[in-house]
Write a structure and sequence with these properties.
Blueprint lengths: L10 E3 L6 H16 L6 H11 L3 H4 E6 L2 E9 L6 E8 L8 H15 L10 E8 L3 H9 L3 E12 L13 E5 L5 H12 L42 E6 L2 E9 L9 E8 L8 H15 L4 E7 L6 H7 L3 E14 L13
Parallel strand pairs: 4-5, 10-11
Antiparallel strand pairs: 1-2, 2-3, 3-4, 5-12, 6-11, 6-12, 7-8, 8-9, 9-10
Length: about 350
C-alpha cells in the first residue's frame, strides 16, 4: 500500500490462488448490490488469472477483516505496458470507509514503479471499466482524476420467433468453426480488430521487458483453461472467400451473469469485406442457431463509438441496448500515445 489503511481492523496482503473462491464471492456480492447479477465464477476467475499472466504477488491486493475478504483489486497489462487495467471491488458492508480510494492509490503507486517496462518516451495510462449506473464508483474515479474515454454498449434480444435467415454475398461461404481452422481464423481475427479503438500500436519485435516470474497452476482446474472459443461446439461461425477467412462470429452457449442466456461475441469482419452485409449474415446465423437450441435470450457487447459502427449491425438483427459500460482513464506518464484513438485511414 502507498498509504496506511484508515482503520487498524483492516489487513492487506497479495491474493493467492487459494483465495479464488473468497474473491469470487466478494466480486459477486459487489456485483449483486450494483446490478443484481453475478460477476464471475471460480473457473472463469482462474482462467482470467491464467490468461492475463498476472503476477498475484505484485499486482493484486486483498483487504481482510480477520480472515474475511472484504475488498480486492488487481492490475493487469501486457507488452508494451502502456495501458494497465484496474479492477476493484468492495463488499457492500464495507463501503464508504475509504477502501476504494486506497485501491486507486495502490494502483497508481504500482504503475509508477513499473514505468521502465514501457518504451522510453511513451505515455502510460490506467484504465477502469465501470457500468454507468454505478454512480458512487464513477464519482470515486472522477475524484482521483480519471476521465471517460470510451462508451461500450450491451445489447440483448429475447427471441420469440425464428429469426430471419442470413443472406450471403455471392462467393462467401459460412462454415462452423473447426479446431483445425484456427491457424487462419486467429490471425484474421487479430487483423480485423487492429482497427478497433484501444488497440496498442507497437512493433512486436521491439524488445520489451517481460515478467517471467509468474507460474500459474494450470493443472489445478483443467476446465478453467479451455479456450473460450471452443467451449460451445457448433456456436462459432466463420465466413470464407475461397480459402481466405473473411470474418467470424464466436459465441458461447451460456454466461456467468445470465446462466440461461447465450453470448454472441467477437463478431469481426476484415476491412476489404466490410459493408457488404456479411456481419449481419453471421449475426443472423448465430441467432438462428441459438433459437434452434432453445436459447432465446442472447446478449452481446460492443464499442458504442466503434469506428465500424458494429452496434448498428446488432440492432438490424433485432437486438436492443440495455446498459452501458464506461471506460475511465488516467494518464500516469505523459509521452507519445501508442493507443489507437482515431478512425483508421482507408
Amino acid at each position: 500500500m502507498s498509504e496506511p489503511l484508515l482503520s487498524e481492523k483492516f489487513q492487506t496482503r497479495p491474493a493467492t490462488w487459494n483465495d479464488v473462491s473468497d474473491i469470487v464471492a466478494l466480486l459477486n456480492a459487489s456485483s449483486q448490490s450494483t446490478r443484481g447479477t453475478n460477476f464471475t465464477a471460480v473457473h472463469w476467475q482462474k482462467r482470467h488469472w491464467y490468461e492475463s499472466g498476472i503476477n498475484l504477488e505484485t499486482d493484486s491486493l486483498l483487504i481482510l477483516v480477520g480472515k474475511t475478504a472484504v475488498a480486492y483489486a488487481e492490475l493487469t497489462s501486457e507488452a508494451p505496458y502502456v495501458v494497465y487495467e484496474m479492477v476493484g471491488a468492495v463488499h457492500p458492508d464495507y463501503r464508504q470507509q475509504g477502501l476504494g480510494s486506497q485501491f486507486v492509490k495502490w494502483a497508481e503507486n504500482r504503475v509508477q514503479k513499473t514505468l521502465d517496462k514501457a518504451p522510453e518516451g511513451t505515455a502510460v495510462f490506467i484504465q477502469n471499466s465501470i457500468f454507468d449506473s454505478n454512480q458512487p464508483g464513477r464519482d470515486l474515479l472522477a475524484t482521483h482524476g480519471f476521465k471517460i474515454v470510451r462508451d461500450f454498449v450491451y445489447l440483448q434480444i429475447h427471441i420469440d420467433k425464428k429469426p430471419p435467415d442470413p443472406v450471403w454475398v455471392d462467393g462467401i461461404e459460412e462454415r462452423p468453426l473447426q479446431s483445425t481452422d484456427w491457424a487462419k481464423v486467429g490471425p484474421a481475427l487479430g487483423s480485423a480488430f487492429e482497427d478497433h479503438w484501444g488497440i496498442v500500436d507497437f512493433d512486436e519485435e521491439e524488445e520489451v521487458e517481460t515478467d517471467d516470474t509468474n507460474v500459474n497452476p494450470r493443472e489445478s482446474d483443467p476446465e478453467a483453461f479451455n479456450s473460450a472459443y471452443f467451449n460451445s461446439p457448433g456456436l462459432c461461425f466463420v465466413a470464407w472467400d475461397g480459402d481466405e477467412v473473411v470474418g467470424s462470429c464466436l459465441c458461447n452457449a451460456t454466461t456467468v451473469e445470465f446462466p440461461k442466456a447465450g453470448y454472441l461475441g467477437s463478431l469481426s469482419i476484415r476491412r476489404p469485406w466490410r459493408r457488404r452485409g456479411i456481419g449481419l449474415a453471421l449475426t443472423l446465423r448465430a441467432l438462428n442457431t441459438f433459437y434452434k437450441r432453445g436459447i432465446t435470450h442472447v446478449l452481446t457487447d460492443t464499442d458504442g463509438d466503434s469506428f465500424t459502427k458494429a452496434f448498428r449491425v446488432y440492432q438490424k438483427a433485432g437486438m436492443e441496448i440495455f446498459r452501458r459500460e464506461l471506460v475511465y482513464e488516467k494518464t500516469i506518464r505523459l509521452g507519445h500515445d501508442l493507443v489507437k484513438r482515431n478512425m483508421p485511414s482507408a
